[in-house]
């Protein structure tokens, strides 16, 4: 980081805000280890207190016994009956099993356990807890009036706190446990919770089945009424439209049409038959000479007999003619008998012909009648076509109502059978047994917990103290926050603990570190060309005068002509430390009331030359005089002949007029910052108040730092103790 800024940067922002105070390498574990080492007493003390509190809690905690029952949540569906259950099983997903865990811890299950086990009158479940007893003992709360409802509610809450339910891995095994002060009671309550849960499952199934049964029973009446209405509508429609079902899907009209068609066909057949017989008889009349075929054609018994007789007479006549000749009287008698037989045949044929004609007329009239009836039925059949469509709609509706009714009736019968079936979808695998050992308190756990809590409390306190402390611990931390160059750090003296040898070694190490730090500061001032330096601080008591004197002596020891000037008229400054306070001094020299020879005190034995602050009258106007006078020329004349000039100026909290004036006169400012006291805001406000530009600041020195934060402290301490 740059310790100085150029003029342009200064004019843009002469006093930049301090950077957030984060230690360098704050993400480094070593930073926190160093913090723990610094705050080790606090961390150790809080850890021991935590262990002690854990031990006390172990002694005061009552003994607790935990007993658990094992349940198996069976995802398989138990089909005792062939019908489907109203309430299905759990399923095989993890959410279903976790839901059973919540059901076991529900108020419905625990409330029944409280009532059945009489926990509302059990002192372990209704008495005030430790916190309540302490509050009542301290008078901070009064005991509430007891009532059955309140006691039951308190017992329910206590049982819920004592109950624990967990699922074993990804299995369907649930462990239901209860923790109380009595092993027998723990086992009894664990079994009671498990059995109540199983009873709750059975009850839920029975209630669901009963509800479904009641619903179906009420629904059956509605479905039956609806079915009756739909079937009556079909019957009324059939009756009003004469659409009567005669079986096999046929209506009465269909049967009548079919029957009438068959009758019409038969009548037509009879007409055709009668016409054929009439035509045959007419043909026979034309061929009367061939009477041999009449019996076969007419198929009449009378004609058949006459035909036989006629044939016999014709044969006799033929024989007589052969025997007696054509003129024989016997032949004439035979022919006369044959003629009479032929006449009879013709008469019978005439009678048959008249009957055939009558039969034909009857057949024709029947055919015409049947034809008219058939045509009437066909017209009527066409008229009721639209009614058949409506009839089919009514029949489908009635059929649907019948199917719903039959299904509901069947389901009602099935649910009635299931209502008495009491099977749970879980079972008790292993009942709880009284534990032989207590589950709490565990001494090792409570001691370890107390120690861990104490340790973390100590670490938290250490971090809080570190975050809220003012000032800086190390030069690097201050350099990062202030944006100024760290020229060195001076350890604080004294405060070493332990034996005499340890204190002596620590003091020797501190002196050696101080000398090494002064040599480093002197070297850095020479590297920066700061031959005129004003040493100041933010607040009094930070060690600026001590540092100014030590620097002046360090330069004088190296053989440089060094002048130490006490410009602090506010208190015990450099002159007081040197023991050279006189009547006249630096203030009198500026006012012209004394010469340099009169105020200069020559150093002896390696001591630097010095100028005291001056008389009280001159010191009263020193600040105004330094503001108004040509301080640059005065300092230039004063520094002539000296290799190093060191001013000791008042703290900046007093106004910083002297330090500011010297800085504007070309004198470099060396700021003293006390470790763990002066913060970045304090420095920024002081520099702003004194109007000291950062370009005039050569750097700062961290004073009164912890010895372990000063570089090379450990090695120096070891060498000092060894010496």
Describe the structure.
This protein has helices spanning about 5-10, 30-40, 40-60, 95-105, 105-115, 125, 130-135, 150-160, 185-240, 250-285, 295-300, 300-325, 330-385, 385-420, 445-470, 475-480, 500-525, 545-555, 575-580, 585-590, 595-600, 615-620, 620-630, 630-640, 655-665, 680-690, 715-720, and strands spanning about 65-75, 165, 175-180, 245, 250, 425-430, 485-490, 530-535, 560-565, 610, 645-650, 670-675, 695-705. The chain is of the alpha/beta class and about 725 residues long. The strands form 3 sheets. Strands 7-13-12-8-11-9-10 form a 7-stranded parallel beta sheet, with helices on both faces. A 4-stranded antiparallel beta sheet has the order 2-3-1-6. The protein has a two-stranded antiparallel sheet with strand order 4-5. The two termini are about 40 Å apart. The model is unreliable at about 1-25, about 495-505 and about 715-723 (pLDDT under 50).
Cα-based radius of gyration, to the nearest Å: 68 Å
Distance between the termini: 39 Å
How many beta strands in the DSSP annotation? Answer: 13
The residue-averaged pLDDT reads 77
Strand order of the largest sheet: 7-13-12-8-11-9-10
As residue ranges, the low-confidence spans are 1-24, 495-503, 713-723
Helix/strand/pairing class, anyone? alpha/beta
Q: Regarding quaternary structure, how should these chains be classified?
A: single chain
Please tell me what the overall shape is.
Answer: rod-shaped
The proportion of residues forming helix, as a percent range, comes to 55-70%
The largest pleated sheet is described as: 7 strands, parallel
Task: Give the count of helical stretches.
Answer: 27
Roughly what fraction of the amino acids lie in strands? 5-15%
């Amino acid at each position: 980081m740059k310790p100085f800024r150029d003029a342009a940067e200064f004019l843009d922002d002469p006093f930049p805000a301090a950077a957030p105070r984060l230690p360098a390498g704050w993400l480094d574990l070593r930073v926190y280890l160093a913090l723990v080492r610094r705050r080790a007493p606090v961390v150790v003390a809080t850890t021991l207190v935590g262990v002690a509190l854990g031990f006390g809690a172990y002694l005061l905690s009552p003994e607790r016994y935990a007993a658990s029952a094992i349940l198996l949540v069976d995802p398989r569906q138990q089909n005792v009956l062939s019908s489907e259950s109203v309430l299905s099983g759990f399923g095989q997903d993890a959410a279903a099993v976790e839901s059973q865990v919540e059901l076991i811890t529900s108020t419905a299950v625990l409330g029944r356990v409280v009532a059945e086990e009489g926990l509302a009158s059990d002192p372990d479940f209704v008495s005030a807890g430790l916190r309540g007893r302490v509050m009542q003992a301290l008078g901070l709360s009064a005991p509430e009036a007891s009532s059955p409802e309140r006691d039951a509610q308190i017992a329910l809450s206590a049982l819920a706190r004592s109950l624990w339910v967990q699922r074993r891995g990804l299995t369907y095994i649930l462990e239901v446990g209860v923790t109380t002060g009595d092993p027998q009671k723990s086992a009894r309550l664990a079994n009671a919770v498990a059995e109540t849960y199983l009873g709750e499952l059975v009850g839920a199934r029975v209630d669901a089945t009963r509800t479904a049964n009641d619903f179906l029973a009420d629904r059956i009446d509605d479905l039956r009424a609806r079915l009756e209405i739909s079937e009556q509508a079909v019957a009324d429609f059939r009756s009003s439209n004469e659409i009567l079902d005669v079986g096999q899907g046929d209506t009465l009209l269909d049967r009548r049409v079919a029957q009438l068609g068959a009758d019409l066909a038969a009548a037509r057949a009879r007409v055709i038959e009668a016409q054929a017989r009439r035509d045959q008889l007419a043909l026979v009349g034309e061929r009367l000479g061939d009477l041999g075929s009449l019996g076969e054609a007419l198929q009449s018994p009378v004609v058949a007999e006459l035909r036989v007789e006629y044939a016999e007479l014709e044969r006799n006549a033929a024989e007589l003619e052969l025997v007696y000749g054509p003129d024989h009287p016997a032949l004439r008698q035979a022919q006369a008998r044959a003629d009479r037989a032929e006449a009879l045949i013709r008469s019978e044929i005439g009678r048959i012909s008249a009957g055939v004609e009558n039969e034909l007329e009857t057949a024709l009239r029947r055919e015409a009648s049947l034809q008219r009836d058939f045509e009437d039925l066909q017209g009527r059949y066409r008229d009721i076509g639209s009614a058949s469509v409506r009839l089919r709609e009514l029949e489908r509706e009635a059929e649907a109502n019948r199917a719903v009714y039959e299904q509901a009736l069947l389901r009602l019968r099935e649910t009635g059978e299931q209502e008495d079936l009491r099977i749970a979808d879980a079972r008790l695998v292993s009942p709880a047994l009284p534990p032989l050992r207590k589950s709490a308190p565990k001494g090792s756990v409570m001691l370890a917990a107390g120690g861990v809590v104490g340790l973390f409390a100590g670490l938290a306190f250490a971090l809080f103290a570190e975050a809220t402390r003012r000032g800086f611990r190390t030069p690097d931390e201050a350099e990062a926050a202030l944006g100024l160059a760290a020229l060195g750090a001076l350890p604080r003296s004294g405060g070493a603990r332990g034996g005499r040898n340890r204190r002596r070694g620590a003091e020797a190490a501190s002196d050696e570190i101080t000398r090494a730090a002064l040599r480093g500061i002197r070297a850095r001032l020479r590297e920066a060309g700061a031959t005129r330096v004003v040493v100041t601080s933010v607040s009094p008591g930070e060690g600026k005068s001590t540092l100014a004197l030590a620097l002046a002596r360090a330069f004088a020891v190296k053989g440089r002509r060094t002048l130490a000037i006490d410009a602090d008229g506010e208190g015990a400054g450099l002159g007081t430390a040197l023991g050279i306070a006189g009547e006249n001094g630096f203030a009198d020299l500026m006012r012209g009331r004394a010469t340099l020879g009169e105020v200069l005190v020559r150093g002896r034995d390696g001591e630097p030359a010095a100028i005291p602050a001056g008389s009280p009258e001159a010191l009263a106007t020193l600040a105004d005089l330094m503001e108004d006078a040509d301080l640059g020329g005065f300092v230039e004349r004063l520094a002539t002949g000296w290799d190093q000039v060191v001013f000791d100026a008042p703290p900046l909290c007093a106004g910083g007029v002297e330090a500011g004036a010297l800085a504007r006169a070309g004198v470099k400012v060396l700021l003293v910052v006390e470790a763990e006291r002066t913060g970045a805001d304090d420095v920024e406000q002081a520099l702003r108040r004194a109007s000291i530009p950062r370009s005039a600041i050569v750097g700062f020195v961290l004073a009164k730092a912890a010895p372990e934060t000063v570089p090379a402290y450990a090695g120096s301490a070891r060498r000092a103790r060894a010496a």
